[in-house]
């Protein structure tokens, strides 16, 4: 294909193309193949903001690219910086929807981690999650997923070392695009698979499919309850994929990858924080190579609207008593650490309590800010 005949093609964004796809592109344009490496480096290593910055391409080449391609599918519309330097980004997508990403500083590793989104909204509907409340809108394309990392690096001029798929959406319900994005993150952005974590609510068939890919990523499971009844309330997809099947898929994942699994457990006062639950959890994960991350619940509803934090009340009448009448709130610190001690002693596994980040901007991964809903609605007007 020559330059003149490429004008009506549908491909719009350079960001999100692999090196192989770029080679194929320049070949079609009858450009020398080294230009593919140059473009690849500008996009993924130098994190440029415009095609005009590709200064080792001729003005004619840049003009051509400018006329036929856009660099990035995301537009930064809002940025908030927390007192602890956590940064929350709001990105506008083609079509008006908006998604968020968060950059956090990892003191232990002296490096930065990006928490990224894989869908607009989410169909799973966990009652403690702001994203779940807006329902599913659409899947993100691989380019839109990867561009969150590039956009953060572009903005901060600092490299991201770790990526966690814990933002908006259930990544395993957008399997193909997420897999493509993980390969791009690994091969093009240059973040090793061992520094990528995918967090899922437990989509059993796709956990097994992912296991068969034998990637060296970390799999994190949002378990949140050791028993079926409580889990069905906290993670409704559990009705479709019961705990027994989920555990079987986790053992399968470990067998295939030999990667230790992370069990995530959001601590909710009076719902899943009892010592009995710690014992049940310990029994459930027996024989599984895993570590457990306890996440003290971070109330976020209305936090930005009223300028103060408050709690979410579950009002859905279909939820069984006593949960329907309870406020979701964080357990007292002492109870969290009692739970941790019992779980640690009984299971013999490593148990950590997640450190809160970005509280003042409601930026904790997996519970991205409620203000997103308002911005999403604005974006769709
Ligand atoms: S916690 Fe995750 S899976 Fe559950 S509704 Fe929120 S984004 Fe979806």
What can you see in these coordinates?
It is a single chain. This protein has helices at 19-28, 34-44, 59-68, 130-134, 142-156, 175-189, 204-213, 228-234, 243-257, 275-284, 333-347, 371-380, and strands spanning 75-81, 87-92, 98-106, 111-115, 119-121, 136-139, 160-165, 196-200, 218-222, 261-267, 290-296, 312-313, 327-328, 351-353. With 381 residues, it is an alpha/beta fold. Strands 1-2-3-4-7-8-9-10-11-14 form a ten-stranded mixed beta sheet. A two-stranded antiparallel ribbon has the order 5-6. Strands 12-13 form a two-stranded antiparallel sheet. The radius of gyration is 22 Å and the shape is elongated. The two termini are 40 Å apart. The structure holds iron/sulfur cluster.
Summarize the structure.
The protein is 35% helix and 19% strand. The chain is of the alpha/beta class and 381 residues long.
What is the approximate shape?
A: elongated
The value of Rg in angstroms is 22 Å
Order of helices and strands: HHHEEEEEHEHEHEHEHHEHEEEHEH
Structural class: alpha/beta
Terminal residue distance: 40 Å
Main pleated-sheet profile:
10 strands, mixed
Query: What is the total number of structural domains?
Result: 2
CATH superfamily of the largest domain: Aldolase class I
Bound molecules: iron/sulfur cluster
CATH topology (fold) name of the largest domain: TIM Barrel
Overall mean confidence score, pLDDT: 86
Strand order of the largest sheet: 1-2-3-4-7-8-9-10-11-14
Query: CATH top level of the largest domain?
Result: Alpha Beta
């Amino acid at each position: 294909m020559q330059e003149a005949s490429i004008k009506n093609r549908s491909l719009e964004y350079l960001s999100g193309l692999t090196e192989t796809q770029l080679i194929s592109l320049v070949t079609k344009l009858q450009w020398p193949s080294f230009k593919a490496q140059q473009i690849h480096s500008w996009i993924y290593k130098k994190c440029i903001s415009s095609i005009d910055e590709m200064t080792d391409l001729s003005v004619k080449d840049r003009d051509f690219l400018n006329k036929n391609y856009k660099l990035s599918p995301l537009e930064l519309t809002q940025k908030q910086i927390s007192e602890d330097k956590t940064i929350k980004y709001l990105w506008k997508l083609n079509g008006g929807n908006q998604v968020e990403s968060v950059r956090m500083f990892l003191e232990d590793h002296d490096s930065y981690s990006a928490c990224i989104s894989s869908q607009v909204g989410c169909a799973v509907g966990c009652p403690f999650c702001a994203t779940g409340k807006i329902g599913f809108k659409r899947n993100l394309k691989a380019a839109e997923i990867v561009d969150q990392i590039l956009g953060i690096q572009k903005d901060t001029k600092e490299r991201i070392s770790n990526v966690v798929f814990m933002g908006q959406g259930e990544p395993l319900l957008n399997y193909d695009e997420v897999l493509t994005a993980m390969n791009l993150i690994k091969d093009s952005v240059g973040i090793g698979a061992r520094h990528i974590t995918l967090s899922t609510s437990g989509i059993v068939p796709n956990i097994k499919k992912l296991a068969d890919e034998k990637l060296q990523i970390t799999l994190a499971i949002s378990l949140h309850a050791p028993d079926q009844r409580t889990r069905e309330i906290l993670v409704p997809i559990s009705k479709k994929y019961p705990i027994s099947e989920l555990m079987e898929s986790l053992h399968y994942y470990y067998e295939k990858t030999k990667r230790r699994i992370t069990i995530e457990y959001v601590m909710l006062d009076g719902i899943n924080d009892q010592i009995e639950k710690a014992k049940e959890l310990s029994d459930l994960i027996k024989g599984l190579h895993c570590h457990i991350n306890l996440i003290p619940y971070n109330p976020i509803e209305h936090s930005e609207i009223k300028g103060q934090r408050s709690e979410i009340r579950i009002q859905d009448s279909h939820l069984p008593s006593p949960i329907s009448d309870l406020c979701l709130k964080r357990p007292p610190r002492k109870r969290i650490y009692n739970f941790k001690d019992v779980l640690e002693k009984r299971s013999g596994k490593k148990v950590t309590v997640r450190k809160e980040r970005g509280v003042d901007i409601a930026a904790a991964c997996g519970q991205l800010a409620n203000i997103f809903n308002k911005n999403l609605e604005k974006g769709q007007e």
